[in-house]
Amino acid sequence: MTVTEAAGRRHIGVVGMGTYLPAQVRSNADVARDAGVSPEWISERTGVRKRHVAAADEAASDLAAHAVRAAADAAGIDVRDIGLLICATSTPDELGPSTACRIQALLGASRAVALDVGAACSGWLFAAKVAHDWLLASPEIRYAAVVGVEAYSKFVDPADRGTAVLFADGAAASILSPVAAEQGFAHFAFGSDGTLADRVLIPAGGSRLPADAGTVARGDHRIRMDGRTISRFASAVFPRLISGTLDRAGLTLQDIDRVVAHQPNPVLLRRIGAELGIPEGRLVVVGDEVGNIGAASTPYALAAAARGGLRVGDRVLLAVFGAGMTWGSGLLTWSGAQARTPPTRPSPPSSPELHETEGAPR
Predict the structure, then answer these.
(1) How many Å apart are CA 95 and CA 79, to the nearest integer?
(2) Which residues does the annotation mark as catalytic?
């Protein structure tokens, strides 16, 4: 069967969602003490109320494995049924191998082809497009797992108010599979502008600036972000993503049941949504409760929408943007998939030193 024939006969959509947040929580009061601001300053400028933090022995793959297992449970499949596993992350377990291979091993998903996609906060939708086309071209594979995950707390400088107030840890996964003809993904579009790659990044630890005593002393393994440029970029690209998707699909905002976007900053997201005239209740905002969890933000918001009443046939407009710079959008007609969240493991007992900093990430 050719790719064209496969595309004509198969429609790929989401059949299960899963999310996972680590147990430890940092409140605005916790973050404010280290960042030199007030809790009210954080709330007013970002809308974030709390953020989850991975334990010292939790890596990105650990969070992701929980989310993929939950998504598989929601889809009613065994993890051994997964034929393709794609991980989107900016905070991999290590520079190599791929974090997806670590997730595969943790799950026992022995039949899966595992690989990573790097597109920062846009990563889950980029990875979903790869999985979508892979499934169209390889009908012998029925299920693909696409997971976005970040362990940002390992890379955030607690004293940097521009990043410490926003970035957090978490994972969200989707199982993709053939769905009914009127359901699934459509009208994808993507873009990148590498001239802005230095506006948000982790400078050291790669081949450009390998780790040494000097990079560690300078804090070059921490996230650096030009907040004003990122805000202007989001304000410019989000409207284009919305209008472009509607134009490709021949729809209006009134035809869209949910707008699910990256969650860079709840205050910013709500402001842009209001300016665009997105009907009240249709823009999904989850950053208040979880912060910016990067590549996990959009699938986490999609899972929240699924739990919040998405029905079979509902149209979901997806819009992502992130470092690189990268952006993308698409339309997803909902299949009725369920979303599940596994229980978090108990937080470890606080030591006197840990209690002193209220769980600040190390």
Answers:
(1) 25
(2) 121, 262, 292
Let me know if residue 285 belongs to a domain.
Answer: yes
Nearest CA to 99 out of 109, 91, 108 is that of 91
Any domain includes 75: yes
- pLDDT per position in the chain (362 positions), as tens? 333 334 456 899 999 999 999 999 999 999 999 999 999 999 999 999 999 999 999 999 999 999 999 999 999 999 999 999 999 999 999 999 999 999 999 999 999 999 999 999 999 999 999 999 999 999 999 999 999 999 999 999 999 999 999 999 999 999 999 999 999 999 999 999 999 999 999 999 999 999 999 999 999 999 999 999 999 999 999 999 999 999 999 999 999 999 999 999 999 999 999 999 999 899 999 999 999 999 999 999 999 999 999 999 999 999 999 999 999 999 999 999 999 998 876 655 443 333 332 333 32
CB 284 within 8 A of CB 85: no
Q: Which domain does 325 fall in, by range?
A: 1-357
User: Is residue 362 a part of any domain in this protein?
Assistant: no
Q: What is the CATH number of the domain that holds 118?
A: 3.40.47.10
Query: What is the C-alpha to C-alpha distance for residues 304 and 119, in angstroms, rounded to an integer?
Result: 22
